[in-house]
Inverse folding.
């Protein structure tokens, strides 16, 4: 799964364009030292509106005390921590070979943002990572966002990590394609499935996350959708919910789609094939209800009732 990294250096950004280009997530620079990124709030809001998974990023350096840097970072976030782990970038060469000082800064920064309930992800490269033997921390407890532009199939990892969560594999993504004013943009990939990505997501935003899953599933099944229309057997005949039953006509039931995009499947369950989708506020007729699923008239198929509102008649 593809993602991007944004900062003030990318200029104005069209998040919808990034989503159309295949971006699933966005890491947005929040601050460096004690300087907030001037475009953070705007980029953060745009990413949320485009239903991208969002992660913050702080660039730690030695120019200012750690307390001031942590305060700046937390102050920029307000109450919205996003969906993905916050990232902290650090490299030994930023501290001019003062590796012991770099470790002290990083450990203190992690401790301070930990008081706000944040367990960060470490963003670094193989060549610039610190000596893990010089620290008492078990660094593998923190997810790794490895930066490696040279490798092709898999990135090279700094010790002690043996696996990575995100891999920034290019600094030369096409900015125009992903909606930025800048010529280039940094690109990353996630190591795992959509469900693996959700395991990293913070709780408390179930409905928002489920809607984003609907968007992602729709994009991932676009090709399968057209194939399934040719290969899948015809959907069962329309239930007689609108016909005469023993001389009495059953009232028609209609509903409105609450999600931005809702998958229509050829059976009542997530394991069934996606054969279409509904848009926000689209009105449909319900022909049959089975558990949490509803069989609708147009497009004909099954939808999850969690994301619709039944019209009261």
């Amino acid at each position: 799964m593809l993602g991007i990294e944004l900062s003030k250096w990318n200029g104005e950004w069209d998040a919808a364009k990034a989503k159309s280009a295949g971006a699933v997530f966005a890491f947005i620079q929040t601050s460096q030292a004690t300087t907030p990124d001037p475009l953070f709030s705007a980029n953060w809001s745009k990413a949320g509106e485009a239903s991208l998974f969002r992660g913050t990023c702080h660039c730690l350096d030695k120019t200012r005390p750690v307390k001031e840097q942590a305060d700046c970072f937390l102050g920029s976030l307000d109450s919205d921590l996003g969906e993905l782990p916050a990232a902290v970038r650090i490299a030994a060469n930023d501290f001019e070979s003062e590796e012991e000082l770099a470790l002290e800064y990083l450990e203190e920064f992690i401790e301070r943002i930990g008081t706000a309930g944040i367990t960060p992800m470490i963003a670094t490269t193989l060549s610039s990572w610190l000596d893990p033997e010089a620290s008492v921390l078990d660094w593998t407890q923190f997810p790794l966002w490895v930066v490696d532009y040279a490798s092709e199939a898999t990135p090279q990892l700094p010790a002690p990590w043996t696996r990575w969560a995100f891999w920034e594999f290019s600094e030369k993504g096409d900015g125009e394609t992903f909606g930025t004013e800048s010529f280039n943009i940094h690109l990353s990939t996630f190591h795992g499935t959509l469900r693996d990505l959700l395991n990293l997501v913070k709780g408390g935003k179930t409905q928002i996350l489920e809607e984003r899953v609907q968007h992602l599933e729709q994009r991932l099944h676009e090709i399968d959708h057209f194939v399934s229309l040719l290969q899948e057997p015809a959907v069962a005949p329309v239930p007689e919910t609108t016909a005469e039953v023993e001389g009495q006509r059953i009232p028609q039931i209609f509903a409105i789609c609450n999600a931005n995009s809702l998958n229509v499947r050829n059976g009542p369950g997530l394991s069934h094939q996606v054969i279409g989708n509904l848009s926000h506020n689209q009105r449909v007729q319900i022909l049959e209800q089975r558990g949490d699923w509803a069989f609708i008239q147009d497009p004909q198929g099954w939808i999850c009732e969690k994301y619709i509102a039944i019209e009261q008649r």
